[in-house]
Amino acid sequence: FKGGDTCEYLLSSGRFLGEKVWQPHSCMMHKYKNSEAKNCLIDKHVVFIGDSRIRQLFYSFIKLINPQVKEEGIKHGNIPFEDKSASIKVDFLWYPEVNGSMRQRIKSWAEGSVAKPHIIVVGAATWSIKIHNGSNEALAQYKINITSIAPLLEKLAISSDVYWVLQDPVYEDMLSESRKMITNEKIDAYNEAAVRILNSSSRNSKAKVKVFSVSKLIAQETIMKSADGLHLPESSRDTNAMILMNVYCNKIMKPIDGSCCQPQPPLTLIQKIAFCFFTLSIFGYLIISLIHRNNYRKNKSCTDLESGEEKKPAISTPNVSTLEMLLHCFCKLGLIMTYFYLCDRANLFMKENKFYTHSSFFIPIVYILVLGVFYTENTKETKVLNREQTDEWKGWMQLVILIYHISGASTFLPVYMHIRVLVAAYLFQTGYGHFSYFWIKGDFGVYRVCQVLFRLNFLVVVLCIVMDRPYQFYYFVPLVTVWFMIIYATLAVWPQIVQKKANGSCLWHFGLLLKLICLLTCIYFLSYSQGAFEKIFSFWPLSKCFELNGNVYEWWFRWKLDRYVVFHGMLFAFIYLALQKHQMISEGKGDPLFSNRVSNVLLFISIVSFLTYSVWASSCKNKTECNELHPSVSVVQILAFILIRNIPGYVRSVYSSFFAWFGKISLELFICQYHIWLAADTKGILVLIPGYPMFNVLVSTFIFVCVAHEISQITNDLAQIVVPKDNSTLLKRLLCIAGFFSGLHFFSAMQDQPRH
């Protein structure tokens, strides 16, 4: 760890991912859009001073503001640019040599009454080499001139951002005869002189002239593609311009995926309170542990010398043990949350951009598939979608989604469409599982609701506090939470129709179908009425939960994307349980689900449907159009998979314990990846071990999985304490939880006032 100044890394080091994607060392670079560039540079004056290479950089920079600009200015003269809509001025000043003229111009800003530019980019040397035929006298004069300019640049750096651009290498074989004297050896000598003089002249580190040396590294990889051996290809100079934009704008715009040059965010009031709470929990647990250990030693059972029997102390301290368990959970959680904060909020660990290649996605998929098949065991029961099978399904889907996220495969549309089906399959299971429970058990009590809501939301609420993120940021949890409440409301509202009641009369089945039709109608209406949807979720306190960036559009988009699949899951559960009740399917070990003929026909249709969907998803050309069709057609592949997995008796009787283990902690894995496996809120990759990508992934993955497993255990333990079965005790706990959220809202309002 060399310190938190990622600007130095951005300006001096990095590597290419593929051919065109530049990865700075240790941090992430944001790709600025025109609107963002304008917002950052509003009312700013930027000046580029130098030769034709600096002119190239100037044009690439202004194209970030206005892509329509054409390179048709005077070659050996000054070129002005102005964007009146944002009051941005960018000037190129033709000073091909570091000489008296350049010094006079810089002096007019440093010591005169002329308004100083906000950003100054300077660089020149190749003309001096060319005009003086690469003589040593020219180099000596260059050193004298830059020595006289350095104090002026340093003075300007107090109030402006000043960058000295080092000279890029040339491709000597392509240089014309008039430029043959410009050699890489000479360029290195000039660069060495500039670095030595500029660094030695600095009296104040805060007023330091920033040396832009990263362009040298970029040029070394790309100069072979140059048209004349001297000037960089367009993609390389665009990269340099984007680096400049990141250096200046990241601290102003604070993009999530631009960690370079961003200062560590200050702790909020809520984060400070959370830190104090976890610290007290750790100390409280240690104190209670010491007290218990001392009591145990004092009351340790001893042998009665007369009877020869052990005397056991009659000590019963259930309240203390519950408190100890509570503090133990918060103690572990506090240590884990510290790791979360260090990984994704403190500038302690490095972060890098994602870069997709087919091999980075498909090779790990094949690897986990082999592992999953290797760990095959017999199921305890052979019902359709039994517990082991659903855990297995969640597990392999979660692992595929994790690989999809870390490899950046969202840029490859066929993979994106298949991942959308996996997310839909999770929601399908939500509809299937909760409907089955309420239909069979008929348990609509508060205890069941609170248990589910606690297990779904506990980790996310803690992360919202510790990581200072809105609830909607972890979009999947709000999604499954809302759908659970919709399922509950649909079945719990009068008349309550459950399996036991429906067995008495077929009319109850029609009543339930009527409820499902009403639900489908409401879903259809809300999906095509954005205004009505936004009005519902814009009321307080729902707005506090579902707003992101000041509106609920993101929540509407996420909900709409898989709007029918939960209904499909409920309908499938109803049909399956009806078939099971009337003994129309065979679920014995090794038996096909239906008769041989029917099973073979359904299996053939399922395989064809599964492959047809994959062909359609792979042929997608437009993400928006495919997303419009996805809610209606995703169920095809989901149902096809269920039938393929369950119709053959042998396939239904086995499961992968490897995948099932991950399935049991799938929710924790999905949420934890945001901050301790990925980085910058999923936009990048966490780097614990720089320079060794594979080793880094292995180490960070091991820690990530262990943490997710531990949080799953903590959640289960706390659920037993926070959500007791006794109704009167549960009511008191609910009042405490209401008080907690009221306090959270109060402190949130307090910390939002200074922000506004």
TrEMBL record:
This is N-acetylneuraminate (7)9-O-acetyltransferase. GO terms for molecular function: N-acetylneuraminate 9-O-acetyltransferase activity. Residues 22-72 form the NXPE C-terminal domain. Keywords: Acyltransferase, Glycoprotein, Golgi apparatus, Membrane, Transferase, Transmembrane, Transmembrane helix. Belongs to the PC-esterase family. CASD1 subfamily. GO terms for biological process: carbohydrate metabolic process. Its EC number is 2.3.1.45. It comes from Molothrus ater (Brown-headed cowbird). The lineage of its organism: Eukaryota, Metazoa, Chordata, Craniata, Vertebrata. Its main location: Golgi. It comes from the Eukaryota. It catalyses: a ganglioside GD3 (d18:1(4E)) + acetyl-CoA = a ganglioside Ac-O-7-GD3(d18:1(4E)) + CoA; CMP-N-acetyl-beta-neuraminate + acetyl-CoA = CMP-N-acetyl-9-O-acetyl-beta-neuraminate + CoA; CMP-N-acetyl-beta-neuraminate + acetyl-CoA = CMP-N-acetyl-7-O-acetyl-beta-neuraminate + CoA. One of its GO terms (cellular component) is Golgi membrane. It is an enzyme of class 2 (transferase). It is a multi-pass membrane protein. The chain crosses the membrane at residues 269-291, 325-343, 355-375, 396-417, 452-468, 474-494, 506-526, 561-579, 600-617, 659-679, 685-709, 730-750. Residues 253-734 form the Cas1p 10 TM acyl transferase domain. It is found in: Golgi apparatus membrane. InterPro entries: Cas1_AcylTrans_dom, NXPE4_C. Pfam families: Cas1_AcylT, NXPE4_C.
